[in-house]
From TrEMBL, chains A, B:
GO terms for molecular function: phosphate:acyl-[acyl carrier protein] acyltransferase activity. It comes from Ruegeria marina. Pathway: Lipid metabolism; phospholipid metabolism. The gene is plsX. Its EC number is 2.3.1.274. The keyword Electron transport does not apply. InterPro entries: FA_synthesis, Phospholipid_synth_PlsX-like. This is Phosphate acyltransferase. One of its GO terms (cellular component) is cytoplasm.
Amino acid sequence: MTAQPDQTGMATGKIIISVDAMGGDAGPSVVVAGIAKSAKKNPELGFILHGPEETLRKLVSKRRVLEGRVVFRDCPDVVTMEDKPSQVVRNGKNTSMWSTLESVRTGEATGAVSCGNTGALMALSMLRLRRLPGVTRPAIAILFPSRNPQGFNVLLDAGADIRADAPDLLQYALMGASYARNGMHLSRPRVGLLNVGTEEHKGRAELKEAQALIAQYAEPAKFEFVGFVEGSDIPGTRCDVIVTDGFTGNVAIKTGEGTARMIASLLREAFKYSPLSRLASVLAVTSLRRLSKRIDPRQVNGGVFLGLNGTVIKSHGSADATGVSAAIKLAFTLARSGFAERLAARVASVAELTQDVAQSADAALNKEKESN
Amino acid sequence: MTAQPDQTGMATGKIIISVDAMGGDAGPSVVVAGIAKSAKKNPELGFILHGPEETLRKLVSKRRVLEGRVVFRDCPDVVTMEDKPSQVVRNGKNTSMWSTLESVRTGEATGAVSCGNTGALMALSMLRLRRLPGVTRPAIAILFPSRNPQGFNVLLDAGADIRADAPDLLQYALMGASYARNGMHLSRPRVGLLNVGTEEHKGRAELKEAQALIAQYAEPAKFEFVGFVEGSDIPGTRCDVIVTDGFTGNVAIKTGEGTARMIASLLREAFKYSPLSRLASVLAVTSLRRLSKRIDPRQVNGGVFLGLNGTVIKSHGSADATGVSAAIKLAFTLARSGFAERLAARVASVAELTQDVAQSADAALNKEKESN
């Protein structure tokens, strides 16, 4: 969906992203620097910016590339990292986060980006945008660097909900496959279910149940199910989509990110060690920069909330301009592919399918009863 | 405990490690290469080697450093990676794995090392060595590279059991702290409880309960409790010991290891990219080697089974000679520190403490009842 000129004052044809300027660790100046970075690279982008208008106008006026491409929504309140989601749901009407989601709900913007409090953003998204018909638990999908040709794997749930039963894990598989198709252009994504071992006798009961369920829907939902995968497959090549509950997913990605940061910092120290290694780092600077770009978490900044009526992207609280710009790029890619509509259609069709299967199972059962 | 000369034919004063030559991916030659590597570095070491004696004698005879330092135990059977733990417990009496644990049970060896099937090794260890009094679930503790001065953090449980309730997590905290004291010489280890967020209102119910329990025992058990930690703290500096259930722990370390392997392979590619970067890699070779040693999973090869009457170390199934040697070094360090005895004493004293607390709580409760 594109914004109408009468609503935003911007030219039609642009894709409008609703951006929460507040709530990140670094304040609104970094968010404005991020949207300026995106605006420079992509002339198709327009923005609705939410927060204290006077401050935001000043910041935006310093960036010529943003001229005529930003509409402001004045909001006095900010959701802090310490606010409890339940409080924000009750008292958050005047916050920039609430206003940011409102622009998606009304259709003025095609996607929302916020660096704020994850729990509050998810709670508000569920309240204002509502879940897609058929979805019990929305999930956060993140991109993790991998050795696959597309450079990343999708992991979900990365922390929307600490619980997930077998039907939830099936929905994550469907939503993750849909995201991989639209966000990474994989026509037949390979989906794996995270477990402690690939042997079938290992793991929790709900995982065995989920394995059977997902296997059943792989064919009609046009993905390949590779079965159980392990932690090492998250950056690996065995699958493109990793499905797990939000507790395990959150721990896994934070461990992966922490490991990458530790290695990067040890690598910097190694190159500072001697005059020879310092010379080496100068010679290898281009190669190392390419590598560091490949594994830089800022480049894949942005957890996508899946299962809602609208696209919401949670950027890291500590994101800098590069990180904010990456989250906006993701929102743009998904908006252009019509992802929200496709996902809704996919989930709806599988909800029907589930009913069909349930009905035919019931029918078979009744038939059996009759014949007995 | 050191082996008696009449039992092994080796000189007293040596620390004897019982080694399973079979069950690893690479076969017995790699295991023999590994013990030879350790024997060369450490004259205090002696070995009891379990497997097909003829094959093993041939392999050992080629290594002069092992002359007079290896006793053989002929075992015709091997536990494979596909064998179910329950089968091995029932029918595994003639396997090298069973025999390896037997030498620890009888006191001939001070520690056992095996590259075989983790589930089977844990099941056999519980059956033959028995749990320490007061321990419900033994745990696997692994070392993960970190930015702490000691170079590693301890994580447990890394996969002994996919479940853990609050009292189990308390025991993991006690055992992990004891391991950090004896294996890493930290007089007052800092212990963290793995969760999805550091805010107290986040996470599963059993984690909140465990948080309260662990906090209560930190002082008497002489460790510092830093509260909830996140995945990024596993390679971080906030604590030395990370406590979690075996499902989450297993996924986390495998994700971390997978991420490290991915970066290492991308780094190698980066250095091959151009003539300039190839030259750089030559110049930086010493620094890079030091870095790669620091984050090489083989250097910290070995999960320690905690909570049993005896020290058992599970080496990676894919370990090479360097990996096997690292596992043996760990067994040696723990044997020399009298770790098994200290841990038993610690767990026993806290079991008493728990009883004391329970009794005084009961007493208080009864008093209250009486006064009402």
